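User: Before I run my own analysis I want an independent prediction to cross-check against. Here's the chain; please return only the structure tokens and, at the end, one sentence I can use as a sanity check.
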Amino acid sequence: MTDLPLIPVRMLNEHVYCPRLAYLMWVQGEFQHNEFTVDGAIKHRRVDRPGGKLPEQPSQAADDETRIHARSVTLSSDELGLIAKMDLVEGEGAVVAPVDYKRGKRPHKAASGVYEPEQIQVCAQGLLLEEHGYSCPEGVVYFVASRERVRVPLDEELRTRTRNAMTELRRNAASGCIPAPLEDSPKCPRCSLAGICLPDEVRFLSRTPVQPRPIFAARDAAKPLYVQTQRAYVRKDGEVLVVEQEKEQVAKARLAEVSQVALFGSAALTTPALHECLRREIPVTWLSYGGWFIGHTVTVGRRNVETRTHQYRASFDDGRCLDLARRLVAGKIVNSRTLLRRNWRGTDDDASAPRELLTALREDMRHAGRAPSLAVLLGVEGAAANRYFQNFQNMLREASDDLGFDFSTRNRRPPKDPVNALLSFAYAMLTREWTMALSSVGLDPYRGFYHQPRFGRPALALDMMEPFRPLVADSVVLTVINNGEIRPEDFISAAGGCNLKDAGRKKFIQAFERRLQQEITHPIFKYRINYRQLFEVQSRLLVRWLGDEIPTYPVFMTR
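Assistant: Structure tokens:
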């Protein structure tokens, strides 16, 4: 406990508001803006600019009436174990008061005019000022929206509650165990970290009878920027990313509306544009001309060390690896079976998928759930995949044969026919999406549980995408073929391989994005969510399972 850093006073506020929130922010380094935090930052801009000066030593003269008005004052104390950046300190001589700015209106429901977290925060600031020799009989909370100042007397009772809060926060941080989420609290929907904390989902999966409320993953309004034009480059122009080719502008996108940048082949990004993407935490992914996922560029990464520690520890535990792998493979088989059942295109007399095939896949799913080792599980998955792809042709419309979309077996590296070219490209796109989702929650996408580590292979992304191969990748392939969105002239064949042309790749990317934006009802939590948000939720649920907050990882399966 003695090795703990100084407690930021703002964390005391968060701890009293919600101990789990303080742990996520302070110990695990998690943070996510929402409209309330952004509004608060805007309303703090003036007091965040340093102004005035707080004397290092208070005046000792009893009649000193020198006025003090200092903004953005940082004080710390090893004795108290606290550090604070105070919005404003005002007073005369040696008697001062900390003034803390809050973005909202004064809460008239609170008897004192100030809620408990704000009282604790301003009291801790007062203790720091006293530690530096000042007299601080009261603090002030200023509510920007209603322009009201509320005085907070720093009596002995409040000081005791503040010290108790400091002790509790230190104890939680030293324990290494994240506190349980609040139960059905009205605070959660307004909390910017609700999508990270997953309070209702964690309680629901921990066998607590509470129905989860809808959550909203970050950057829902932002969209990926794909640049596949060869020799194109992306530059920054103010708040806009401009795509140019041969010094001619071909596209542009507002930075605030970009969730990620994907560059194909020789497309490039200028250094200022890359710096701005990193500053805004917009990941940049690099793909080969043919769409093979090469890598990605992100900022220094998530600061949540505990998440990676849990991941690495579990990845060396054979029992946990097998447990998760069984669930993921079983989920993939179930979703493959569902896709066959829903999209089977038989004759009028035999319009549904054969019962024998569905029964065999159900048996494969059961065998996967009981596999005694990863080697056996690999064999079960291979048998199920072989059964699935042997019947893949039956999900293509009859006219597709005449168009050259014949499919007999799965082949790759390189794919030899148009359908396999589409499947390979779809899996590469899905791998990229999962790599982004896992990185964004602080997991290492290269350390998996089912797929073994191999140079340059995002093993965890490959693990997590297994149940989504049929639901997203295969589904998009069926859509673009059966709807006639992609034609044989969209492919090029050379040296025994088949690949998409630029125009075909553009059409496929559009269809893939449509699929990711499609909303579905979560079969466990019952709220509506699109696939891209679902990837983030599933990633965060994996984090909760790795941290032993929930007993099992819930694999997404459709009926």
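Sanity check: The longest helix spans residues 318-343.
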